[in-house]
Amino acid sequence: MAIDTSETSPLVEPEEVPTIWEEALSLTVLAGPIVLTLFMEFVPSITNIVLVGQMDTPNLKRYVDATAMAVMYTNITSYSVGLGMATALDTLCTQAFGAGNLKKFGVLLQSAILGMSLTLIPVSLLNWFAADVLKALGQEPALADLTGTFVRVMLVGYPPLFFFEALKKFVQAVGLTTPMAIMTALGNLLHISLGYYLSQYTSVGYLGPALALSVFEVALLASMVLYATWWNPMYSSWSVEWSWATAWSHVPQFFHFGVPGMLMMLIEWGAIELLTLVAGLMANHILTIGVNSILATTLNLFYMPYFGLSAAATIRMGNLLGANQPLKAKSIMWIAFRLTFGFALITASLIVLLSPVLPRLMINDVDIVQRASTALYYIAPLHLVDAMNAICQGSFRAIAKQGIASGVNAGAFYIVGVPIAVLFGLYFEWSVEGLWAGFSFGSLSAFVIYQLILRRVDWTILANEAADRW
């Protein structure tokens, strides 16, 4: 491991330490469309519940519950897996582009297609048998069956979604982030309009939004392929010459970087879902589950800008390491930290200032709104640390050390965060507020360990490792 670590491309200049303001502006401009893309990919989860909630049916509550459970289930078994595996290309594509080796994209594309195809096998099994899994976990059989059917319809869209996520990384690696923002924004219009029509005016009923989401994901892949082959035929410089032997030889490399990236997401997302289960064990659990849902949704929404900024920093650092400019790559990381800290202070303050308003935008229940309005104070510090952790994780992806980050996540959240959350929330009976206050210690411990490691990184060695890779 390289502890203690260049661009002849559109994103790289001769090696020199960039000024803070110039690079901060560059990162912000690069991150903007990425943030919009992430938001547009997150919105359908909420839209599905809203669309089902607009139906005129005596079984409305059961359908809404099934849809909400399907969203939670697929976030863990599908979306986190696809997004996580695609992060392998954050390392591989950015460094290859920085090294001026665009022809390597052809092999990387082939190995990504094979890797994602293999990943889809267990994902498909988990989702096809979702009802059985949920029943085994103790869920009510009737609700589990409704949820399982909803998930099966969503399953149709997973292959195109996984391949879209992979192709997205190739385009982002060369500094093009706006096209995907446009694609996902238009796709959401398709999802909403088609989902509303199917759920309101056809016999498809509550499955309409799920079917519309699958159509949306097919459309995303189609638009991405059209963009890369016709609108901006960048594929011509990728040397795409299919070779089974060459493609298979690079699949282990894809999994080497993809699996830790996937685990990084699964560990964190899974820990948050555990908080939902713990909230359900508390006195007045209907209230605490509702409050917990508002806190989790708020954290997710306010986290997106930093996930996007993290992706932008990964692109810049990866390009620079590939181009053998370690000094500049290191500077980008610290500039990203400063930029994130400044923005996160503002957004954490907004969570507090908007605490009387945010719950009302999500639910009409008076008791839940009043409780959530004060409980939001407890996640503001967590949001600040989470934002900084996003840059830490992006840095580990850029330097090809995802495995370290996933290990830190596992220890921080399951040895520190979740146990302290349970201690505060259940044993000390501090309820959902204690739950999130305790969980903050997990995020904080991860940040401390990340910083200790990143401060010892030898960027020159990492640049040499990137050069050996290409």
UniProtKB/TrEMBL annotation:
Keyword Cell division: no
Keyword terms, alphabetized: Membrane, Transmembrane, Transmembrane helix
Localization annotation: Membrane
Name of this chain's protein: MATE efflux family protein
GO molecular function list: antiporter activity; xenobiotic transmembrane transporter activity
Entry keyword Membrane: yes
InterPro entries reported in the protein's UniProt record: MATE_euk, MATE_fam
GO-annotated cellular components: membrane
Regions crossing the membrane: 24-51, 63-87, 107-130, 142-164, 176-198, 210-230, 301-323, 335-355, 404-428, 434-453
Gene Ontology biological process terms from the UniProt entry: xenobiotic detoxification by transmembrane export across the plasma membrane
Membrane topology recorded in Swiss-Prot or TrEMBL: Multi-pass membrane protein
Protein family membership: Belongs to the multi antimicrobial extrusion (MATE) (TC 2.A.66.1) family.
Organism: Aphanomyces euteiches
Pfam families listed in its UniProt record: MatE
